[in-house]
Amino acid sequence: MNNTEDVEDTLTQLQSEISSLESDKSALLQLERLDSSLSRLKARYGAVKNRTALVGGLPNEILAKIFEFGRDLNMPGAEYFEVLASHVASVWREVATTTPSLWRVLEISPSRSPDKLKTYIARAKACSLELRFDFTQEVWVPDQFVWETVLPTVDQWRTLVISTGPDDSALYTTLAHLEPLRASLLEEISIKRVDNSSVPFAAGTHHGFPNSAHSFHAGAPRLKILRLEGTYLSSNWPPLTSISTLDLHHLRRSTRPNWNRFRDLLVSSLQLSSLSIYGDVVAGKPGSNLDIELRNLRSLRIRGTTPLGNRASDLLLTLSAPNLKSLTLFDIVHTDLDPFLHGSQLFQSLTSLTLYWPNFLRTTWIRLFQTMPSISHLTLMHRQPEEFLALLSDPLAPSFSPCRHLIDFALYPGNPREGYLENMILNRVVHAPLQVLRLGMYAEVPGVQVLPFDLPPSWPAWPEQL
Prior knowledge:
16 strands; two-stranded parallel ribbon
């Protein structure tokens, strides 16, 4: 009997404890549900409150465009804007993660893991991509995981930028991986060497790529722009038949092409319309019979190292560009142009001339404008332009009228000694009047529209140093 009563008491006690725990469990579950509901309400409250801010009232399309501007301000080593924006608020995260163009720039560097690249690629969806390989911070070569992540996206590549330091290993490894590919949308390639003139090359690095086939050997039919700074790849060119813009900047001495190879590069595309040369880019002197015919060239810009020497005249003497419209020369002295100005072909088609800090004699100016008789737009950066203004002030003679067709004249700094500018304008008013004058400091001039000085477009990696 007693045993039965003990069992009953035990069962009763255990049932009571079970009921108590179930009650506690129910309370806890209720509390968990309340906590979850509270979190959702707080999130909703925050989202609605954020909408009351001025930025919260912007349409998603405008907010996405602002994010893109922020992305363009990304700095190496800093947290990228698109990542920061996606962690500010739920609305911002939704806009950021669903804006493919915000994730179109793929940075390939030691600090970017394949997982991060995969995230960017997934969010970019079908958007065209800009690849930026950064090999400047340390000797580093992408591993196989990086290539397995990046190479399958080649059909989306629009821009390829490779920045390299004194060690060439990563550059040539990258080019080797690109060799068999076809980049159907690729429009621009830029290869830049950092500190190429001051940092010694590491032992054992490559100084050419003689045994390689072309990069993008399977084709890059839309490639329009090629920019090379500090390095010239003697045989690793992608097909260049569609190139319209070519920029060459301070090529390393050991990789500079000779004049015959330089000519082959320039004439490889019948579409070449813009050519920019900065510093030493070709080895030796051109042969006496060398002729570089560029019938579609419209814009030519030449800037040499200091002193410039004869690089400008060498190129101009070898060049046949019957449709050239715009010429820019930087830091030219009169001896640089003497070989070109004596017996050179007339540049009848040239209508726009820009001169940065020329050092010319009066006879040089006269010969220059005899060679280029159709100049209508002239931009001159000169701290002592009085002699040139005096030439433009001369009465027009039948045999030679300097800049007879000049209608738009830009002068920087634009503060010549008193009277020179006024005399030039007045003396030309009858036979060759100016229509537009652009000055650094300007005032009203009767009969002439006076505008602020407008800087010419800068060259890639070229500070204007005004």
